[in-house]
Design brief:
The protein is α/β, with parallel strands linked by helices and 200 residues long. It is built from 7 helices and 7 strands; from the N terminus they run αααβαβαββαβαββ. Bound molecules: S-adenosylmethionine.
Length: 200
């Protein structure tokens, strides 16, 4: 891993354990991703979406309102749009430059992008049928708040445990279970892994 990737892993480990630390870690993390934004599309590998795709395939009914958290340049948001022609998707990211790039490379009237922090989301309770996270730190309280009852969360890591931003499935399950999620599906695809869960 590069030093930037190691930093992202340390931040992930700390914030999953102590979410309040995000207050001081947000600024350097955002700066790192703002800097990476212009080259992000170019460094993404072709199989990076495989685990997210595997999770979307498991959904038994098409979601209408979707949030892609930590959207970066919007790859997962576009994947959802291509798979579910009825869905309206919001891609949210804390890094302004990522959102600027996402808008530049995305051409779909059903996808909107906005700068927002996953720790404190500007959306009402139960606003989404599906929330996706691709290589992104989960903020479990907010996740549970914005997913509608009967809705799903899909957390995908492109290179499994080698992804710089990565949370092991046991941890994801226990945090989600405590917040009313069930029906877990642990999936592997390409070099990555994903977890799909439904909110009761
Ligand atoms: C590793 S990138 C993944 C981007 C995209 N999902 C992909 O797979 O290409 C992580 C993204 O999450 C964003 N991010 C990190 N913490 C965030 C937070 N608290 N709220 C919103 N976005 C966040 C970063 O700015 C960055 O764009």
């Amino acid at each position: 891993m590069t030093s930037g990737q190691r930093f992202a892993r340390v931040v992930t480990d700390l914030v999953v354990r102590w979410p309040a630390l995000w207050r001081i870690l947000r600024r350097p993390m955002r700066a790192q991703f703002d800097k990476l934004a212009p080259q992000w599309e170019g460094i993404r590998m072709p199989d990076m979406l495989a685990p997210a795709e595997a999770g979307l395939e498991r959904l038994t009914s098409p979601p209408r309102r979707v949030l892609d958290l930590g959207t970066g340049t919007g790859a997962v948001a576009r994947l959802v749009a291509a798979r579910f022609p009825e869905a309206d998707i919001v891609g949210a990211d804390v890094a302004e430059q990522m959102i600027a790039e996402a808008r530049r490379v995305t051409d779909s009237p059903r996808i909107t992008f906005q700068v927002a922090d996953a720790q404190k989301l500007p959306f009402p309770n139960g606003a989404f049928d599906l929330v996706t996270l691709g290589n992104m730190i989960p903020f479990f309280d907010e996740l549970a708040r914005v997913v509608a009852p009967g809705g799903h969360v899909l957390i995908a890591y492109s290179a499994g445990a080698e992804t710089p931003i990565y949370v092991p499935p046991e941890r994801l399950r226990s945090e989600l279970e405590r917040r009313g999620f069930a029906e877990f599906a642990e999936l592997s695809a390409g070099r990555g892994t994903s977890l799909l869960a439904a909110k009761s």
